[in-house]
Amino acid sequence: MTSILMTSVRDDEQAAIHDYAEQHHITINTTPKLINDALDLVPGNDGVVIQQRGKVSDDVYGVLEQNGIKQLTTRTAGVDTIDLEAAHKHGLTVTNVPAYSPRSVAEFALMQIFRMLRHTYAFDHQVARNDFSWHGLQSKEIHSATIGIIGVGRIGGTLAKLLHALNATVLGYDVKPRTDLDGIVQYVSKEELLKRSDVVTLHVDLNPTSKGLMTAKDFALMKPTASLVNASRGPVVVTKDLVAALKQHEIQAVALDTVEGEAAIFAQDHSKEGIADQLPLVDELNKMDNVILTPHIAFYTNVAVENMVDIALDDVMSILNGEQPKNEVK
């Protein structure tokens, strides 16, 4: 019987994994460990599916090859955790899940855009201190707002349609503008988008061109009343520059679902020791009244979790059956 190892498995994934195993008459072995720490579980399996935010350690690729594994599948959209050259050198076909649920992240970003426009982050902190005053925090209705989307792909395009339905003005910046969004998105330069937008929201893949996409010079272009939402990848924003921009009131607020170095703290409980020693800049952000910080959970919905499991396993099964997987990364 076909046997597949899945690492970094959470409890909420188990139902979808169980259903898939029963429907396809295979065995799926699961562990909460990262693949880096689960190499002793590889022998006896035919395929491997991972999910992690940190780098796959260099020794993983050789161990997979030695055990006859022909593929390495990540049930995430991003593949920056995998050394593609090393994987291919060891005869591994790499696949990902590029579109598990664009709507999950788009809806999350929309929620954060509303929070930025309505200043709920500030009121949350005030009310927690029993301060029920308004302090001049007048909101902006979304139909009167301009929202700038950097990265108008699957997720950014889905968000654009949601914003358009709410009568917001939607600006877009992308190296490959989509003609199917004519009448929904007005494509402009990055500079114009930053200058005009009330909220800038990031939806780019992590690659050499997007790393450090938002720096001090970009924040300086934004309106002091504007806000930023990042539901893409942490390294897209230079954290030290963001902290400085907030302190200098160059931008009003930020909602971060992902940060630089997040693997050190996200998906873990640091309530006792804090995070100052691991990520001092993120600790500083977390203490600010105009920052919303969430632990990379924009994707985390019922539909997305099931799709991530099913699509990843479909590709593994295709490879094991000698077929071309739908989502190979070359």
Describe the structure.
This protein has 330 residues and is an alpha/beta fold. The protein has two domains: 3-100 and 302-329, Rossmann fold; 102-293, Rossmann fold. It has eleven helices and 13 strands. It has helices spanning 14-24, 59-66, 84-89, 102-118, 120-128, 154-165, 190-196, 216-221, 239-247, 280-286, 302-320; strands at 3-6, 27-30, 47-50, 71-74, 93-95, 146-150, 169-173, 186-187, 199-202, 227-230, 253-256, 291-293, 328-329. The protein has a seven-stranded parallel β-sheet, with helices on both faces. A six-stranded mixed β-sheet has the order 2-1-3-4-5-13. Strand 10 (227-230), helix 9 (239-247) and strand 11 form a beta-alpha-beta unit. Helix 4 crosses helix 6 (154-165). The longest helix is centred in the last third of the chain and has 19 residues, at 302-320. The protein is globular and about 65 Å long. The two termini are 29 Å apart. The model has no long low-confidence stretch (mean pLDDT 96).
Provide the structure class: alpha/beta
For the record, give the distance between the C-alpha atoms at the N and C termini, rounded to a whole number.
Answer: 29 Å
Radius of gyration: 21 Å
The coarse silhouette is globular
Number of contiguous helices: 11
Features:
six-stranded mixed sheet, Rossmann fold, 2 domains, seven-stranded parallel sheet, single chain, 11 helices, 13 strands, 330 residues, alpha/beta
